[in-house]
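Milestone 3.1: sequence recovery, worked example.
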């Protein structure tokens, strides 16, 4: 896809964004100084200060539909809509996760600086938009197209660099991007992602067939979460080994409602968790007991 709009008569378009960022940084690898305007450096410092202050203050919890969760599976949203704010506050992120949130925000500000250095035009940062009664704040537009900035682990980064996000999008990023684009009347945006481990960048622009009709999608979610019984499970459990054991799919592993959702697992006894070197695995059926420590949940 090629962005046809030219903003402020810029000859650049979104297709060359990553290459242009790398080019703007290349002199440093050649032992030469980079060209960074005082204004861009000052803006970066101010934005970092705002990010730290925002991170350091507790944010109001919400249990309703939000732009950030409209891509989540309907069953997860059904459970979330029935959690009181008091109960939700008991499951705040750990201290380590809070630190991870902070450096994610800081990396996003660094990417904004790189975009400016590359000569591309960034506008509409944190602009408030509304789609079908749902309010959200988009990251920005670059060269006239909506772009969501993402910081990612090496594993998650591959979804952006290879485009496999369209087949594995448990956090609903594409639906969120589509909502912003629907509000802005654009359709050729995407995700600018940075690999937190390697520093690599990738731009992924999902095609129109990967994007939902967002207004209809929101209507369907509203109907689903008002029902007395939850929608179907978001993901089927998967085989673990060849002896008959089954465990949660990755989309369920990190869900805070997995214990309620899978209360019928293991013949009604609920999930069983085992500690592997790669992390916890949650089993829905145990035929052969894993030879690792069981964690009681």
């Amino acid at each position: 896809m090629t962005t046809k709009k030219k903003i402020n008569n810029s000859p650049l378009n979104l297709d060359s964004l990553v290459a242009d960022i790398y080019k703007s940084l290349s002199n440093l690898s050649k032992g030469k100084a980079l060209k960074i305007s005082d204004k861009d450096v000052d803006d970066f410092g101010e934005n970092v200060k705002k990010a730290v202050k925002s991170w350091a203050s507790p944010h109001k919890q919400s249990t309703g539909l939000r732009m950030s969760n409209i891509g989540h599976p309907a069953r997860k949203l059904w459970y979330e809509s029935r959690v009181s704010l008091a109960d939700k506050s008991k499951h705040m992120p750990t201290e380590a996760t809070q630190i991870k949130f902070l450096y994610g925000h800081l990396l996003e500000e660094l990417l904004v600086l790189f975009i400016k250095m590359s000569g591309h035009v960034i506008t509409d940062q944190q602009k408030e938009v509304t789609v079908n009664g749902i309010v959200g704040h988009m990251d920005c537009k670059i060269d006239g197209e909506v772009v969501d900035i993402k910081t990612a682990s090496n594993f998650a980064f591959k979804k952006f660099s290879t485009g496999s996000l369209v087949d594995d999008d448990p956090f609903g990023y594409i639906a969120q991007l589509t909502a912003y684009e629907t509000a802005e009347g654009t359709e050729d945006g995407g995700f600018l992602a940075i690999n937190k481990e390697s520093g690599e960048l990738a731009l992924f622009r999902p095609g129109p067939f990967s994007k939902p009709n967002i207004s209809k999608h929101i209507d369907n979610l509203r109907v689903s979460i008002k029902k007395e019984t939850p929608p179907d499970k978001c993901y089927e459990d998967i085989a673990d080994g060849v002896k008959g054991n089954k465990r949660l799919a990755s989309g369920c592993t990190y869900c805070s409602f997995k214990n309620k959702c899978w209360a019928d697992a293991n013949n009604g006894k609920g999930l069983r968790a085992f500690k592997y070197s790669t992390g916890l695995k949650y089993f829905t059926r145990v035929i052969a007991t894993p030879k690792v420590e069981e964690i009681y949940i």
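The first strand starts at residue 122 and ends at 123. Residues 1-8 have pLDDT under 50 and may be disordered.
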